[in-house]
Backbone:
């Protein structure tokens, strides 16, 4: 398989348009066209992880945390990042990252961790809002299925739990190619009538530019005709969003719930802040650094909020607002992303075609004594 095919498997679950504006998701180093037979999945890309990838003759590294966050103004081989880029290129290893797009995806990292903790009926803690549009594309009848396929594969036509939703009507289009044109149908200077389908579907406003570009690339006409309509009822809460909130099957004491979290996430320790409730039933979480969403957890009546990277004054704020917070650590709350990435890839590939391995070199940058 090519790297682009692997990227599509990830982006079917976690489309890049979900990523935060400050983030840098997607291809980091390498090529969309490289042949892939072995993939290494990792939380971070460190020298140890890269050495492991080289030793195991990996073609593609997929990380959660982006290797390149900010724009590079120079690649200096005496610098660690510059040296690693040189090693990636010289060993023909492509590097791809799925970060906040995977965090916010409906079936992404937060959903995966919620299921590990046995939280059911989970919904996004802070749902994304989407502006919906209806797009109508006019296409020769013989090209209808091709355009419908492009729409569906690009994420258009999602209504509830249904994908590839479109509606088509047949009609006749007319045009006259003027001097200097190269028409797909008809001749220059001649009035032409052609049977066409009008394909209608729903799209997320954030995908408008990229989707139209993809459709034009697949459309046979020099000048593609299309209409774009903002929907009056189009500002909806998405199934995607940061964090998750749901309920446990059975309520637990605070002490039992701490042990439950440690067992489910394979943690030796956690930190806690605020006053523990008598019983824990409704649970909110946000993997990584999610202290900024403590207020949302409180508003949505969570008995406990699980996140990482809690600072002293944030812990004080939790105490003052009578919210119980469990800090599982940034690494602790996200380390299982490698299992999620492996599952996503293995479900869509054959074992004799693609080998996906989990890095053994991931480690918490924090040390506890």
Residues:
């Amino acid at each position: 398989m090519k790297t682009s095919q692997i990227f599509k498997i990830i982006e079917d679950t976690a489309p890049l348009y979900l990523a935060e504006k400050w983030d840098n998701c997607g291809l980091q180093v390498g090529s969309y066209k490289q042949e892939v037979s072995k993939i290494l999945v990792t939380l971070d890309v460190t020298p140890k992880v890269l050495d492991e990838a080289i030793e195991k003759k990996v073609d593609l590294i997929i990380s959660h945390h982006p290797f390149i966050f900010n724009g590079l103004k120079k690649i200096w081989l005496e610098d660690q990042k510059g040296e690693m880029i040189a090693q990636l290129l010289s060993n023909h290893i492509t590097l791809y990252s799925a970060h906040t797009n995977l965090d916010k995806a409906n079936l992404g990292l937060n959903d995966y961790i919620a299921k590990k903790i046995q939280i059911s009926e989970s919904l996004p803690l802070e749902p994304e809002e989407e502006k919906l549009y209806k797009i109508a594309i006019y296409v020769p009848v013989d090209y209808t299925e091709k355009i419908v396929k492009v729409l569906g594969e690009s994420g258009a036509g999602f209504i509830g739990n249904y994908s590839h939703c479109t509606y088509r009507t047949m009609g006749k289009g007319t045009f006259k190619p003027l001097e200097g044109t190269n028409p797909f149908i008809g001749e220059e200077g001649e009035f032409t009538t052609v049977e066409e389908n009008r394909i209608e579907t729903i799209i997320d406003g954030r995908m408008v530019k990229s989707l139209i570009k993809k459709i034009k690339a697949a459309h046979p006409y020099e000048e593609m005709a299309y209409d774009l309509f903002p929907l009056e009822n189009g500002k909806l809460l998405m199934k995607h969003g940061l964090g998750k909130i749901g309920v446990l099957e059975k309520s637990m004491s605070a002490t039992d719930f701490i042990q439950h979290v440690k067992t489910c996430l394979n943690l030796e320790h956690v930190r806690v802040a605020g006053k523990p409730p008598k019983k824990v039933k409704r649970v909110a979480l946000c993997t990584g650094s999610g202290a900024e969403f403590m207020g949302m957890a409180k508003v949505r009546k969570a008995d406990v909020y699980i996140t990482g990277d809690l600072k002293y004054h944030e812990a004080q704020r939790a105490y003052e607002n009578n919210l119980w917070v469990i800090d599982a650590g940034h690494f602790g709350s996200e380390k299982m992303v490698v299992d999620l990435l492996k599952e996503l890839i293995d479900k869509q590939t054959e074992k004799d075609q693609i080998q996906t391995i989990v890095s053994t070199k991931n480690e918490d940058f924090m040390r506890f004594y």
User: Anything to note?
Assistant: The chain has three domains: 3-101+335-358, 109-125+243-328, 128-239.
